[in-house]
Amino acid sequence: MRLFVGIAVPPEIAREISGFVLHLRSLSADLRWSAPEGWHITLQFLGNIEASRYACVVEHLSQVQSAPVSVQLEGTGIFERAGIFFASVKVNPELLALQQRVTAAMHYCDFIPETRPYHPHITLARGKGRTGTRALQVLQNAVRKQPRFGEFLAKGFLLYESFTEPSGSRYEVCARFPLVLAK
After folding, report:
1. Mean of pLDDT values over 152-160
2. Which residues contact 24 (CB under 8 A, 6 or more apart)?
3. Does domain 2-178 match CATH 3.90.1140.10?
4. Which of 59, 85, 102, 120 has its Cα between 20 and 30 A from that of 46?
5. What distance in Å separates the CA atoms of residue 10 and residue 154, rounded to the nearest whole number?
6. Domain residues of the chain, as ranges?
7. Cα–Cα distance measured from residue 114 to residue 137, given in angstroms and rounded to the nearest whole number
């Protein structure tokens, strides 16, 4: 199983982003666009795990406590080395605290957190092959004015399984974890 923990992008925000990227899709054939139904904000990538570790993951994620988290998008950018065009997510204290709680919970299941600073984002497109980096630059240059997307209140997070297919990645929700105010 190839797993990660994330926050789903609600349909109203996905519609805003879809409207923005609609005209960008025609700029290059060297990009593979992500499907809106798969858009998410990763809290922690777990990678390939044995089925025997799945119960540990679900058990410890169910113990993560947090109030709902405000999520605000901040425009677009590219990760050149990874070949990704993305919508950036503002790091606020609540989102960062949730991400840290998730990684702390996964430590009990022997997952090691990233050493790089947390950079939440929504992957919109990936470059294909050697010409993908150039296509990403063309795309980023075409964004003359950074978009202003809405914000939303994340009332939960999800455990996803990722499937790599020729057309791109596909995700299935394995478990849902609500974010509720502590009483």
Report:
1. 97
2. 139, 142, 143
3. yes
4. 85
5. 9
6. 2-178
7. 26
